[in-house]
UniProtKB/TrEMBL annotation:
Reported function: Essential cell division protein. May link together the upstream cell division proteins, which are predominantly cytoplasmic, with the downstream cell division proteins, which are predominantly periplasmic.
Species assigned in the record: Roseateles chitinivorans
Protein name in the entry: Cell division protein FtsL
Family: Belongs to the FtsL family.
Residues of the signal peptide: none
GO cellular component, one term: cell division site
Annotated compartments: Cell inner membrane; Cell membrane
Membrane topology: Single-pass type II membrane protein
InterPro entries: Cell_div_FtsL (IPR011922)
Keyword Cell cycle: yes
Keywords, comma-separated and alphabetical: Cell cycle, Cell division, Cell inner membrane, Cell membrane, Membrane, Transmembrane, Transmembrane helix
Subunit structure: Part of a complex composed of FtsB, FtsL and FtsQ.
């Protein structure tokens, strides 16, 4: 009877230790899951903000403004035309550039 009691005591102790360890692991995984979900929500909010910024930057008015300010482009007018017989294109600062052969005049 003493051996059986000792064996049962060891089984109860092992079972208790396993249960405590399992509960601890469950709490740790739940905390990790909660952190991952919070990070996912933060990343989703950042993504939505970036998409809104992208839409704002891609408007026609914004593109036109960047073309004027950064690229120094200007609207086309009849006064600004390409003359293939001209010796150089002065407006762009490139000298000696001619139209390709067979280009429309």
């Amino acid at each position: 009877m003493g051996r059986l009691n000792l064996l049962l005591l060891v089984a109860v102790m092992v079972s208790g230790i396993y249960m405590v360890r399992s509960a601890y692991e469950s709490r740790r995984l739940f905390t990790e899951l909660d952190r991952a979900q919070t990070e996912g929500r933060r990343l989703e909010a950042d993504y939505q903000k970036l998409m809104a910024d992208r839409q704002a930057q891609a408007t026609n008015l914004r593109v036109e403004q960047v073309a004027r300010e950064r690229l120094k482009m200007r609207p086309i007018s009849p006064a600004i035309t390409f003359n293939p017989d001209a010796p150089a294109i002065e407006a762009s600062g490139v000298r000696g550039v001619r139209a390709p052969q067979g280009a429309a005049r």
